[in-house]
Structures are given as structure tokens and as C-alpha cells.
Amino acid sequence: MVTVGTIVWLSSELMFFAALFAAYFTIRGVTPELWELETAKLNVPFATANTTILVLSSVTCQWGVFAAERGRVGRVGSVFQVGKWGMREWFVLTYLMGAVFVAGQAVEYVELMHENVTIPSSPYGSMFYLTTGFHGLHVIGGLIAFVLVIGRTFMARKFTHEQAISTIVVSYYWHFVDVVWIGLFATIYLIQ
After folding, report:
1. 156-165 pLDDT tens trace
2. Which domains does the chain have, with CATH numbers?
3. What's the sign of the alpha-carbon dihedral 191, 42, 53, 61?
4. Which terminus of the chain has fewer Cβ atoms in its 10 Å neighbourhood, N or C?
5. CA–CA dist 8, 44 (Å, integer)
6. Can you list the residues of the chain whose pLDDT is less than 50?
7. What CA–CA distance (Å, rounded) separates 74 from 63?
8. Are 161 and 45 in contact (CB under 8 A)?
9. Helices 161-185 and 87-114 meet at what angle, rounded to 10?
10. What is the DSSP code (8-state) at residue 82?
């Protein structure tokens, strides 16, 4: 039931982001010359590197799920033996990569503010910060979920099926956040 509920909830989140995409393209269609001017200020190589980190974090998250499905909550060897990592190690790595992504977004916001791309400066600035900001809040929500799942494994005496299910549910959310970002990245940075 938790898995089905999560999928239904993520469907509603998909509708929310679909509305943001619709608003983005509507405002872009009304002021195309503004988009040409403002998108030239984007640091596409930096955003590409940041996107790569987020996408790779989805891979590490899934490896954590595989470890949880095998019942391996923690590593069985040295920390340098990646093949023997458990769910905790993979989720900690995923958390760190997600945190780097959020920090990268913050750096990009500061750079764009110096270029006078702000929420009140133009419709472009409003849509850029609205879409990427809401996505960033979703990433932070995922980071909180990782901390809760990892913390729960330390609190419990035994790694249970329910904990494995919560690991899978968190991975659904994280993969969703990644897929939404790929769409946003293509829309904002590549379709100029």
C-alpha cells in the first residue's frame, strides 16, 4: 500500500511540475526576445556538471536499494571495498551528491543575481527561480528522507522488510526528482 500511495502522490507532483512547464512555455512564447537575452547569461557547462552529479546520484540510490533488497544494511568489508557496501553507504553517498547539487544551484543563483536575473527583474527570472526553486525544495525533501531512512536503520535492532520498502519508496521519490530535473535542464538550459 505504501508503494501504491507513493506512486499516486508522485503523480500529483508530476501534475504540479507540468503546470510549471506550461507556465514557463506560455511566458516564453509571449516574450521570446527576453528569453534570448536572459538565457545567454546561463552557465551551461556548470549546470551540465551539476546535472551529471544529480543523475549519477540516482544510480547510487538504486545500488542502495539493491543492497537493501539483499538485506545488507551496512558494509561487510572495508569502506574502500565498494562492492561490499550496504544500503547505508550508498544512501550516504547519494545524500552527499544531492547536497552538492543543491549547493551548485545556490552558487548558480548567486551568479545570476550578479547578472541582474532575479525574481522581480523579469518574467524570465520569475519562471527560472520558480521552476528551479521548487525543484530544489523537492531535492531537499529527498535529502531529509535519506537521513530519516538511514537513521531508522541505526535505531532498529533488525533490518526488516518494512525498512526495505521504505528504502524503495525513497528511491521512487529520488528517481522522480531526477527525471523532473532532466526535463527542467533540457527546457531551461538546452532549448534556448
Report:
1. 778 877 788 8
2. 2-190 (1.20.120.80)
3. negative
4. N
5. 34
6. none
7. 13
8. no
9. 30
10. G
